[in-house]
From TrEMBL:
Location of the GAE domain: 716-831
Organism listed in the record: Sapajus apella
Protein's recorded name: AP-1 complex subunit gamma
GO cellular component assignments: AP-1 adaptor complex
Keywords linked to the UniProt accession: Cytoplasmic vesicle, Golgi apparatus, Membrane, Protein transport, Transport
Amino acid sequence: MVVPSLKLQDLIEEIRGARTQAQEREVIQKECAHIRASFRDGDPMLRHRQLTKLFYVHMLGYPAHFGQMECLKLIASSRFTDKRVGYLGAMLLLDERHEAHLLITNSIKNDLSQGIQPVQGLALCTLSTMGSAEMCRDLATEVEKLLLQPSPYVRKKAILTAVHMIRKVPELSNVFLPPCAKLLHERHHGKAVGLPILCFSSVDKRIENWMGTPAYRRRVAHTHRHTRSRLSCPWPPPFTSPTLTPGILLGTITLITELCERSPEALRHFRKVVPQLAQILRTLVTTGCSTEHSISGVSDPFLQVQILRLLRILGRNHEESSETMNDLLAQVATNTDTSRNAGNAVLFETVLTIMDIRSAAGLRVLAVNILGRFLHNSDRNIRYVALTSLLRLVQSDHSAVQRHRPTVVECLQETDASLSRRALELSLALVNGSNVRAMMQELQAFLESCPPDLRADCASGILLAAERFAPTKRWHIDTILHVLTTAGTHVRDDAVANLTQLIGGAQELHAYSVRRLYNALAEDISQQPLVQVAAWCIGEYGDLLLEGNFEEIEPLQVDEEEVLALLEKVLQSHMSLPATRGYALTALMKLSTRLRGDNNRIRQVVSIYGSCLDMELQQRAVEYDTLFRKYDHMRAAILEKMPLVEQGGPQVDEEAKESKEGAPAPTESQASQLLDLLDLLDGASGNAQHPPLLDRSPGGALVHLLDLPCAPPSPAPIPDLKVFEREGVQLNLSFIRPPENPALLLIIITATNSSESDVTHFICQAAVPKSLQLQLQAPSGNTVSARGGFPVTQLFRILNPNKAPLRLKLRLTYNHFGQSVQEIFEVNNLPVESWQ
């Protein structure tokens, strides 16, 4: 006996009437029990009604998997109402993860070969929605036959199904290549034939012959007549000519695009039809098509956009095809209405096509000007698209993009965070030697008022641009000081080292720099990078600060007590980091040799920090106190001004490598310095030491005291290896094997950037086989400067006691040209010397 259950409408009303979630679950559980009972004992003629209720339950998020097999039964039924519900259930309840989806392959194959258009449409929709790779391979032949059917309704669905098949199984491209070529040679735009008319025109009598009772068939016939009268379609319907409707043409272009993206053979084949595609697009732009396919006065923008995408693929790296498109793209760019969003979409695709093919120089300038007009659009989305596109073009068409620099700078004041971020990236990319002063003024003004989440990027960008295009050293110092004063907590980690390097190399600006930094420190001690640089500079050039001879700025007399009090204030401030206190303590120690007064105050401060809780600060204070007590005669020599250290970089490394062959052999002190550098590299490994070159002369007291053996001959160097290169970003590996620990391998990762845009958020991760041990040291930074600027280095320590063959898997993630990049690759060609 069939258990009575609710109708679909009653079920919906009862679920909506539930006041709590518990009541809703109770109603659904009760009805699902009725549905299960109906599936077991109910009338097959009513099965589709039970499934429609189950679909509603599934839409609410409740489990409905027990209806999967019932869907398969309805699909195999001969009744159209059952097939419609069954195919809908298959699309909702089945996917590739369920093995049951393979059971409907035969049913779909039979329905595709029946010749009944509504049934073929249902089968094609289901196949394009949930067809797996196995189903696509089995049914590709049937879909190919339907591509050239007289009915536009079936052809359109068959084309979309073919697109799904190509995406699932790219090797099926050869199956659909001939039908696509035939579809393009038919008429392009005919009058669109509505879906209801197509259904009625081909299945009237067949539906009346096989659907339901005579009374039901009469109702169907009446419905057909009534619908035709509403559609002004005569009875019986006229013959539908096999013209290529706009929907079929759009589907055909989409299918060809998929083929060209996945098959080089298809790409070569369809490059021959570029003139035909150009003629279709020219017709759309000049004469248009039926008004029912026009949007805001733009003739079928969806079709235009799809044709432009296909032309972009066909013209990429192909001179002949690009030459054919130039005149057409210029015509589209000048004749498209930009007052509506549909026209802007067509124009944007035109710009992308111009920039991606080998177009003429004048056409590229026109494309950049179109993007410049987009910047004045009131729609934020269009402005964002324009900024993103200009950022991609700034390297290849720099002069054309420079014309729109004032508009780009205005976009910095956008309230939308995504727009202001894109405008900031583009503004930094537009900085060059001729406009650096004006652009830095705009960017510094923006830095003062920009949102907190943009300050780090803005500050880092200003510092990099100033380093690359600074007209004078004084201007460079002033720019960095302004950034440190405004957003010191947001600058990069290497900002302090870069500024100290810059000040140390500008001897004529020592007095100017120390006075500027002293004044900035007296006003604000909260910006830690600024405080660190100021403490370093006061310690190095404090004597110049006390002299007061400054021609460039207003003279201000500073006495020794004020300087010491300021440094003590930094030491006692709760805002000071341990590293900042270390800078201040070292500055006080250096001032002990530069001030003419008594050093008792400095000695007292140093002795206080001898019991500091911070171990590094305590060690530094104890060492300084020992220097005062035991080695006071050496204090002046030890605390001399720091010598200028050459800043490293790719160019410096190349010059050093070139001059290495002609250089004389290193002396003992030079060799000791090199060994000290190796000790620094290996300092984290434990007790590994590099013995110095010994002098057995009588004067070598230190050697006799330590009684160390002579240094063994150094092993042959391991050649460097380039493992990655993309758009100017290059990754090189250098290898060092300490002689005293052959199982240890040091790999120095060096990332360089020869492109015109900085690489930001650079992260390098590695993995090795389980038999090896890997330790990753912190990188030197996360920004790789453009044009061969500062590289990013990172040290990998690999312990290989069994001397197993070394394999390395690397993952790189970074942002370049405004886009996020992730690369995962394996390095199998490491030198044999690195592991044997």
